Amino acid sequence: MRRPLIVLPILIAAVVGCSADPSPSRPDDRGIKPSAPFTINHESIPAADDPQRHAVTLTITSAAALPSALLAIAPGPGVAVVDPPPPTDLGALEAGVAKQVAVVVRVGDAGGTLTATISRPGSSVRQSHLVRLGAAAAPVVDAAPPGEAPRPVVTPDGERVIIHQGTPR
Amino acid sequence: MTPFRYGVCAAIAVALAALVGCNDATGGGSGGSAVPAPYTGPTVQVTGRVTYTRVPSLPLPTGLDYGNQVEMPIRGAVVEIRDASNRLVSYGNTDASGNYTLRAAQNQGNTLRVKAALGSPLSPNTYVVDADIADPNPPASDPLRGKALFVLDSPLTVVAADLTGQDVNAASGISSTGVFSASRPSGPFAILDVIYRAQALIRSADPGASFPMLLANWDTDLDGTDDASSFYRRSESALYIRGFEGVDLDEFDTHIVAHEWGHYFEHHFSRTDSLGGSHGDGDFLDDSIAFGEGFATGLAGMIMGDPVTHVGDPLYVENTATGGFSFDMELDDDTVGTGPGGRPYEGYWSENSVSEILYDIFDSAADAGDTVDLGFTPIYQAMRGGEISTPYFTSIFTFLNALEQVIGGRQAGIDALAAGENIGARDDHELTPGGRYLNILANGTTYAGTIQATYANGDAADFNKLFARVMIRAGLTASGRHRITVTPDPITAPIELRLPNVAQKWLPLPGEPLIYDAFPMGNDLIFSVGLEAGFTGRTIPFTVTVEPMASPIMPEGPG
User: Fold this and answer.
1) Among B175, B264, B305, B510, which has the minimal tally of Cβ within 10 Å of its Cβ?
2) What is the ipTM metric for this complex?
3) What is the mean pLDDT of chain A?
4) Closest partner residue to B504 among A23, A155, A161, by Cβ?
């Protein structure tokens, strides 16, 4: 690509005579994707006398200090909320300081899911966290894939490729 | 699409194939064997369409919708046919619908190969490669730097006559319930398609644009290297896109791929002074990273839209296996409450404010407060013009001024968009009272400045936050060499000096003031003094003096 000719007030650094260390490069020359605004974790404990009754504790940590945040709990298939958390307004959040919310649910034999969604007043930001419970706790996406992924091969004309097979249509 | 048949181009193709590939015994496999001569026998025409399967994204909390996967055309990709002896018969590119027309060797088996590559078939500008497996000693001429290119192969029927309907799909390798197989052929082509759209957007503003080499690394192995985020790395001109099954499939998060491509655009087509580091919603960021990240997100909304109608896709979505997050650039974000120092969340320090302004400048939708509909071309011209040549650190201020140069002055609609984000009276460096720069004279007078800790989170990314560096404009009173002397308090405090449009930074020698000599041109000497990257946020008072020096420094000679 041809860059346009740029006339800049170029600053020509003369290192000689400077009491400064030119760092060899920036420690991080990456432009990275936006971080999630919250870190959400959960712990689920079945009741000893009623294995279908689960106490779910959500731990929410905001990356930035925020004046307020709202929490919504949505049960998915196989889950009924028994004891919802009374306040959905988490109030002010300090950066890096966790808040915990407890919810009690009943989980069917086949297991189920619960989704916690955090939003902020005056903002379009939404963050969701999926909680898998009971028999659904082990997500199918974590299953070890069968077979082995294709490995690189070098073609006779020297190209290094990873070959996937096409599916005829 | 015009197919190329080996014949006239054979010699060029062989020569370039040697460059494109890595014909080196260290490459393993069949290294050391001679490059096969191209096929020159009788051929038949082969036509068909190639597609990839995309897992679509629904609004959260649904996220990736494995049950409703869709086939999308593989557009602009390099395709070729090889005969039974692996000799190249013909090559070309798919068209905007994924169609191809090639020649195959008559009366023998052939293989259709679709490469995850864009651009000229013999010299692509974009490759999607595996992030983790590389030849440690690639030849210097290898544009893939030892990485392996993803390709999709499909055998063709042995025929004596022309062959039609040779349609091939790159499957997702993921079931409707989200179960993964070992092979996930569509991932590289999902990444490629976003880059195809990005290039199309650029060409809508600049039909002659050419694209410097880009390696888009698809990272499917959580091996602890570069796994924490998808990103663009300038020193490699490379994207790294996360594709971790059961964790994060960014290859299907279109706005993330497009956002990272936006950093490639800044690097090669424009300029950025971004400090890098982590960032996100609600952060009070340094001006340059706020602009760079907000620009990349705004551009993603444009890339995923239509450059003709100026209709974009403002919904940025990050899907993960356990949920994800989203935000909408058409909705006014962060309007409630105030952050550190009592400042509102919206401002030049907010990447969300920047992306909302950029997107509203582009899009035709007349939503609340947005009467602007400029499309992409003026934005492109601003990024190619004034945003490169500004002597100041890049920011929303430099961009808006560059845009005004393109459109012939200030526009009330753009002023309203900026004002809606608490960005008021402006110039190239926000010279207004209380503005962003410490204005001093380069006459030997000593001035005081303070690096501030907007955050003191014990976070190594505190250095890229608002006021963690002081931008300084030293008005020149003389020409020639000038000496900058910065003395932090305490003298051992971690500070660094940066210049606009220079990747380098300078640190003081241990226990000494930071002294830097420069030969400024123009009326001002622009630099910044900030918290050294990697150190946690803190307040650092310092003094700064800029003084003209009597004589230029001559390079040291031998002896």
Assistant:
1) B510
2) 0.86
3) 81
4) A23
- The number of angstroms, rounded, from the C-alpha of B147 to the middle of its chain's C-alpha atoms is 20
Asked if A17 has any chain B CB less than 8 Å from its own CB, the reply is yes
Contacts of B524 in chain A (CB under 8 A): 9
Task: Give the pLDDT confidence of B43-96 residue by residue, as tens digits.
Answer: 999 999 999 999 999 888 888 999 999 999 999 999 999 999 999 999 999 999
Answer yes or no: are the C-beta atoms of A128 and A109 closer than 8 Å: no
3-state secondary structure B475-531: EECCCCCEEEEEEECCCCCCEEEECCCCCCEEEECCCCCEEEEEECCCCEEEEEEEE
Identify the H or E element spanning B187.
Answer: helix B186-205
Q: B519: which chain A residues are within 8 Å (Cβ-Cβ)?
A: 11-12, 14
Question: Is A48's Cβ below 8 Å from some Cβ in B?
Answer: no
- The answer to whether residues B546 and B484 touch, using CB atoms and an 8 Å cutoff, is yes
The nearest CA of chain A is from the CA of B321 a distance in Å of 8
**Cβ–Cβ gap A62/B325 under 8 Å:** no
Per-residue pLDDT band for B21 (boundaries 50, 70, 90) equals: very low
Residue A19 has pLDDT above 60, yes or no: yes
Report whether B546 contacts B474 (CB < 8 A).
yes
d(Cα B335, Cα A121) in Å, to the nearest integer? 8
Predicted confidence band of residue B28 (pLDDT cuts 50, 70, 90): very low
Q: How many CA atoms lie within 13 A of B296 on its CB side?
A: 33
**In chain A, what residues touch B135 (CB-CB under 8 Å)?**
160
Q: Is B387 on the interface with A (CB under 8 A)?
A: no
In sequence order, what DSSP letters do the residues of A33-100 get, joined into one string? PPBPSEEEEEEEEEETTEEEEEEEEEEEEESS-BS--EEEEEE-TTEEEEE--S--B---B-BT-EEE
Chain A neighbors of B89, CB-CB under 8 A:
none
- Per the CB < 8 A criterion, the answer to whether B228 and B250 are in contact is no
pLDDT surpassing 60 at residue A139: no
pLDDT at B18 over 80: no
Q: State the smallest CA–CA distance between residue A49 and chain B in angstroms.
A: 29
Confirm if B414 and B400 have CB atoms less than 8 A apart.
yes
Q: Is residue A17 scored above 80 in pLDDT?
A: no
Contacts of A44 in chain B (CB under 8 A): none
Q: Which residues are registered as beta bridge partners of B134? A: B147
Q: Most B CBs within 10 Å: which of A16, A155, A163, as the mutation test of the B interface? A: A155
The DSSP code for A105 is: E
Q: Is A49 on the interface with B (CB under 8 A)?
A: no
pTM, whole model, 2 decimals? 0.90
Is the Cβ–Cβ distance between B298 and B291 less than 8 Å?
no
